[in-house]
Write a structure and sequence with these properties.
4 helices; Substrate Binding Domain Of Dnak, Chain:A, Domain 2; Umud Fragment, subunit A; single chain; about 350 residues; alpha+beta; 2 domains; 4-stranded antiparallel beta sheet; 9-stranded antiparallel beta sheet
């Protein structure tokens, strides 16, 4: 009888051993994590604690470390409870509630988002067809706000400016014709830089001239189909135009020759065209802008206006989302244009 009881007791003890070991590991892990939190609080608020408080906290810490080195999870819990009482007595002012931690995390994330939005990267939605075929109505782009400097939002003021503008770059800017309006009513435009400070810009028989030099262009497609929209939120209308490839000198001649970049432009052969637009002399500290949809763009040619450096929000660099016609969706023609996702500008 006694022999059977002994065997059963030994078996039960062996069965409980893994459970006790797991409980001990968990207690040690949680106790060490708690010790790190308390040590961080003591280090941060050391100057506000009296010598007596520090001595009590150190004593509680020593007791908890001794319990961690032992083999009894109940002793660890007891020592951790003793340290918790010391923390509540001397460091309760430094401990935040769960709600406060959650709120602070939200505020920190919001602050980061605002810094990104105002000073680094800004999203922008294309509302009109003035930059077709490069940018379509409904394209969503990212603008690099550090391309040319650091600008104070809403004040059109540069606090740091390193320049680096080049002809052919697509930028987002505040329309200088809206300077008389309240800040929130001023419109953002997106166009292509064709004129730098000191340049003379002309359009002769629809050919762009920069400082008297014709910028080459080549016909790509005579009957190019695209979709425009009759006002914001209006119906989509299929249009046709000539698609050309224009090459423009980006800046001053390099040592090994002229640096150029090419982009697509549209020409509506059925619209009346001016034989001469300009010449427009670009003043210092300003840029001259044109849209790629050359016959449907309210740009610098209309009245000869120029964009001050302080109005430039940044350079458009990628399309991250696109919605419009033609698109992919469950009904109709309007929907997501997957082929335009992550397309460079």
């Amino acid at each position: 009888m006694s022999s059977d009881s002994t065997k059963r007791g030994g078996a039960e003890g062996n069965a409980d051993a893994p459970v006790k070991a797991k409980s001990l590991r968990k207690a040690r892990r949680e106790a060490r994590r708690y010790l790190k939190e308390v040590e961080a609080l003591v280090k941060r608020h050391h100057g506000r604690l009296s010598k007596a408080a520090l001595d009590e906290l150190n004593e509680a810490k020593g007791a908890l470390l001794k319990a961690i080195d032992g083999e009894d999870s109940a002793a660890i819990d007891l020592a951790a409870g003793g340290m918790e009482k010391s923390v509540e007595r001397h460091l309760s002012f430094a401990r935040r509630s769960v709600a406060a931690d959650y709120l602070i995390s939200i505020l920190e994330a919001l602050a980061i988002a605002l810094v990104l939005r105002f000073f680094i990267i800004e999203p922008y939605k294309i509302p009109s067809g003035s930059m077709i075929p490069t940018l379509l109505i409904g394209d969503h782009i990212f603008v690099n706000k550090l391309s040319y400097g650091i600008r104070l939002p809403a004040l059109d003021k540069l606090v740091a400016h390193w320049g680096g503008y080049e002809r052919g770059e697509v930028i987002v800017f505040v329309n200088p014709l809206d300077d008389h309006l309240p800040v929130l009513q001023r419109r953002d435009y997106v166009k292509r830089i064709v004129g730098l400070p000191g340049d003379t810009i002309e359009v002769r028989d629809e050919v762009l001239f920069v400082n008297g030099e014709a910028q080459p262009r080549q016909l790509v497609e005579r009957d190019f189909k695209y979709f425009d929209r009759m006002g914001e939120g209006g119906p989509w209308v299929e249009q046709r135009a000539e698609l050309w490839k224009e090459t423009i000198a980006t800046g001053a001649p390099a040592e090994d020759g002229r640096v150029t970049t090419a982009h697509d432009i549209l020409r509506d052969a059925y619209r009346p065209h001016a034989l001469l637009e300009g010449p427009f002399q670009v003043p210092e500290g300003h840029l001259f802008m044109m849209g790629d949809n050359r016959d449907n763009s309210q740009d610098g040619r209309v009245g000869g206006w120029f964009v001050p450096f302080g109005h430039v929000k940044g350079r458009a660099f990628v399309i991250w989302f696109s919605w419009g016609v033609p698109g992919t969706w469950f009904w109709g023609d309007e929907g997501v244009r997957f082929s335009r996702f992550f397309k460079g500008v």
